[in-house]
Amino acid sequence: MTGTSQGRMGSRLEKTGDRSRLQVVWMSREDLATVLAQVSQELSDERDEAVTAARICRLALEVVDGCDHATLSVRARRHRLAPAEATSEVAEALQESQLSTWAGPTVAAFESAEPVVSHDLAAEDRWPGWLDLASPVRAHGVRSVAAVPLLTRGRTQAVMTLWSHHRGSWRGATHDAVLLYATHAAAALDAAKIITGLETALGTRHRIGAAQGILMERHRRSLHQAFAVLQRYSSTSNEPLSDVAAQVVEESERGYAGPDPRGPAPD
After folding, report:
1. 144-167 as b/e, with b when 16 or more CB fall inside 10 Å?
2. What confidence tens digit (pLDDT) does each residue in 166-182 have?
3. Are 64 and 179 in contact (CB under 8 A)?
4. Among 144, 157, 233, 235, which has the minimal tally of Cβ within 10 Å of its Cβ?
5. Is residue 1 part of a domain?
6. Domain count along the chain
7. Could you give the residue ranges of the DSSP H alpha helices within 26-171?
8. Containing H/E element for 215?
9. What predicted TM-score, i.e. pTM, was given to this entire model?
């Protein structure tokens, strides 16, 4: 997506059978917005969070001119990032080195909630520790990078990082395209995360209910007593309640009756 003196840039999404591909052509910024809306539709077709993360990275290689590798790192506990997707071994190595040293463009974009661009990593001096460890130029031939936070309701939920083997890849129209693409990617990831979270919650509720039923039947406990048994077992074993419930269900299917509380049942 290289700009011209007429201010035209972009890609066109073309359908081939059941698959979509992006073909680079000259077009107006308005046309580019339409194209990215089509990309957003393709991203939103999948409601699984992990699959959506993979699609975001894969389509970035097709949508953004000069993008050779892409990674997606998602918000984890304690204000950290966790790897979600990488399009190549090079991308995976660059992602892993940043998360292990907690330095680099991905981390900087996450902490600032602002896009971070390096037009020439060979001349970069902002992250000396990471640069020495990862050696992006010497070891991987990567010369420039753009890390963009994916924001939802003002909160960074992930960072999309694009890598290029060429210097100065993220200027002008291409930079604009990256930001537009990131907006659509953030919306798709948020929607998938919500759906995945709801499905997980429903699955957890189902497993806990099934485990309660097993304990009620096998050990003559009330609904409240069965739940208290699961809670106590979860606390003493330091395992999540949902994992304990899943274990009870699994062991019941193998013929084991499940945990029976010692002593009197709770009131």
Report:
1. bbbbbbbbbeeebebbbbbbbbeb
2. 999 999 888 988 998 89
3. no
4. 235
5. no
6. 2
7. 29-44, 49-63, 89-101, 105-112, 128-134, 136-140
8. helix 172-219
9. 0.66
